[in-house]
Every structure is written in structure tokens, then in C-alpha cells.
Write a structure and sequence with these properties.
By secondary structure, the protein is of the alpha/beta class. The protein has helices spanning about 10-15, 65-70, 95-110, 125-135, 150-160, 175-185, 200-205, 205-215, 280-295, 300-305, 340-350, 370-375, 395-400, 420-425, 440, 445-459; strands spanning about 5, 25, 30, 40-45, 75-80, 90-95, 115-120, 140, 165-170, 190, 225-230, 240-245, 250-260, 260-270, 270-275, 320-325, 325-330, 360-365, 390, 410, 430-435. It folds into three domains: about 5-105, Udp-n-acetylmuramoylalanyl-d-glutamate--2,6- Diaminopimelate Ligase, Chain: A, domain 1 (3-Layer(aba) Sandwich); about 115-310, Mur-like, catalytic domain (UDP-N-acetylmuramoyl-L-alanine:D-glutamate ligase); about 320-459, Mur ligase, C-terminal domain (Protein-Tyrosine Phosphatase, Chain A). It has a six-stranded parallel beta sheet with strand order 8-9-7-10-11-12, sandwiched between helices. A six-stranded mixed beta sheet has the order 16-17-21-18-19-20, with helices on both faces. Helix 3 packs across helix 5 and helix 4 (about 125-135) packs across helix 9 (about 280-295). The protein is globular and about 75 Å long.
Length: about 450
Amino acid sequence: MSRPLWTIAEVARALGVAGTFPDTSIDLVTQDSRLVKPGSLFVALSGTPSGGFVSAFASARDGWEFADKAEASGAAAMIVPHEIAGIRIPQLIVKDTLIDGLWSLARAARGRFNGPVIGLTGSAGKTSTKEFLAAYPNAYASPSSFNNFWGVPLTLCNARPDASLWVVEMGMNQRGEIARLSELTRPTVALVVNVQPVHLEKLGSLEAIRREKVSIALGLPPDGVLVLPAGIKASEWKGKVIRFGENAEVHEITHAPHGESWQVVAGIGKKELAFSLTPGAPHRVQNALAALAAIRAANLDPATLAIKLDRVGIMTGRGVEQAVGGVTVIDDSFNGNPASVAAALQSLQARHVSDGRRIAVLGDMLELGDDAPSYHTGLARHLAGIDGVFCVGPLMRQLYDVLPAGKALGWHDDPATLRPNDVAGLLKAGDVVVVKGSKKMFWVNKFVPALVAALQAKA
């Protein structure tokens, strides 16, 4: 019988909670009462983040208001800021359930793992790169997009101590957050996937974004390794650096489409390594190179990862395809910024289309600050090979106004009132359409499922 992830007594000791607690097994740590199952530890977080963190999804209710639901779902114990009347399972009481609870347990989790830990961040593609790294045999990686002030510690708390490798994704909502997350994670390898104009409203310049991303190195030990794209400087870090990209230690030699796949040959040091990516797109080659460079930096075998890469699928909202009514719909609606939108258009250009058109439905790219209009207009240079563009949102009017007449399929001001039937009516059998924009444009309002339903009704 395998050892449990935690016991209640171990959690109490990690948190410094006095008293006698049972050695009851805990196999999942979660802050979401809806995810509680028998054997879970429920962490009752405040609806308003503590510790100086911010969240776009703050709740009007606190986690401990759902204590009874967590208990009914089989929670073995819970971390709470005060005793909850009527709860019969062990309550581990701490002053602040985020910092004194979840973060303290995460530190204890990290302290008991001696294997390699890859922490990664980037402006775009970090979750896709994380999924590549997760394909390494017996690796444990952040689930979904658990990359913020509660997602990172939850990843550490749930990571298997017997894993070959931990992979921890880190994002940001404010300046200084990546450094704090890295110092909690204490990676042995820190990977910056890329530096692109994202969060400009908050950070102000591309240089400020670079500093924020490179601050992931603050969690490295002196003998750690920083993995960077070619051309990104990091004078703040005085230790070892491995680079990937053009003319770097890890680089692409060739790639060629083969059906829906890409056959890639990469140079890693003095060796060549061939592998496949499915589905194929040029930006996924760069993500794969980043993953291989991080594996090399961790003193693991890149070839062992390479043979797994063709089995790594695409996560929901990040390029998942489905065919409906003869139309291929590519859902890339989870988020959008200048780099990722350009990559989505490049991927669409690479698609073989026999009897249809390549269509892009593009929504506003948010948080770009004063330069937002020029970033939207600038997308026009990525439209070679794209047959039609439908623009959504006030900022996308900038692009729509410079589109050639033959490519301008329409503009709609407000995504909340955009009718999927309006877009479905533009599409015909054989078309390939990609939907891409910032999260609030298409992802939050579930536009793509509604578009698919409209196409099904039309078929």
C-alpha cells in the first residue's frame, strides 16, 4: 500500500498547530469545496485575498462558509481561521488560512522533495510548455492553470514526493508576484518561456515585463540554472544560463509539416534529436525547445522527453479543434496577447485547406496600455494567407479599419451581445476558423460552444 500524501497529524505539525491529531490519510489538498472528495484536506480561504495579493475573481463569500459542504463531501480535515460550530472533523486553526495555512504547508511539501523542480513563467505559452514538461516519465506538474498565489502552493501541497520531477507554472497579477512564488517554490531550474507585451497596463514597458519574468531566478539556489530564450538578457542572475532558440544551445535545425503533425529536428548541444508534435504549429516548436532546454538544465535526458511530445494534446481553449457541419473550429479563446494572436494566425496560415477558407475571429487584446491601438493595427502584418477576419471589441476596430475589403467579414463592438449565429452565417463547409482574444472576449461567455451549437443547427 502506497504512503498517503499527508496525514492530519503531519499537516498539523507543518502548520505549528498544537494538539493531538490522528494519522488519518489525506490524498488531496483543495480550496474548492466542490472538489472535495473522501480523504481531502479543505483549506478555507478568504474570499478577499490576503498577503497583499490581488485577484480578478475575488469572491463575496469566504471559504469557511462552505465548511459543512466540505464535510458532507468527505473531507478528512480542514484549515480554518476560527472554530466552525457543528463541524465534527478535525479543524486546524491558523490566523491566516492562505499565508499561515496553505503557504506554510507548501513550504513543508517543498522541503521533503529532493528531486529536480522546474519553475516556469512567460508571457504566452507557459501552460503549453508545462504540459510538454509534464510528459516526462513520472513527472508531477501544476494542474490546469494553477499558477497564482493559491494555485502554486496547491501544486506543491499535492505534488507526489516520489515523482521524478516537479513542474510548477507561475503567473502574475501584479509586480513582484513571480518572485514571491519562486521563493516559495525554490526551483532548481527556472524557465522563462518568452517575454512579450502582456500586462503593459500594470508594468508599463517591455523592459519591466522582462524584469518581472526574470525575477523567477530569485528562487534559485546558487547552483541553479536559468533557462532563457535567445536574446533575452538577465544580468540580474550571476549563475548558470542555458538558452534556447536561434543559434542557442538548444535550437531548431529543421521542421516540416507531415499531415497534421510537425516533424522536428533539434540541436541540443552537439547532438541532434528528432521528434514529432501533434497537432502541429510553429509556436509549439518553440515551446518544445523550451521544455527540452529545461530538461537538459535539470540534468535529465531530453531524448526521454522528446519521444513523448507527440502524445501531448492541447488544453481546452488553447487550440482544441472540432469539426461541425463541415467547418473546423479551433478554440484558442482562453487568452490573447500580441504574441499569442500572431502565433494563432501563423498556425492558421500553415493549415492545408482544400475547398474552404482560413478565417480568424479576433477579439480585443486587453491590458496593453497606451499602445493598445497600435498593437491591434499591427496584427495586419500577420494576415498573409488568411482569407477573412471578423473583429470583436472596440480595440479590434483598429484592425478592422485597415483590413482589405476582401478580408473584412465584419466588426462587432460588444462580445456580450455578439450572436454566434452572426458568425456561423459567415462560415461554410471546408472553412477552418480560429477564435482568439483576451479571456473576457470569448472564453468567459463561452462563445465557442455557442458557435458550435449554431453551426450544428445550421448543418
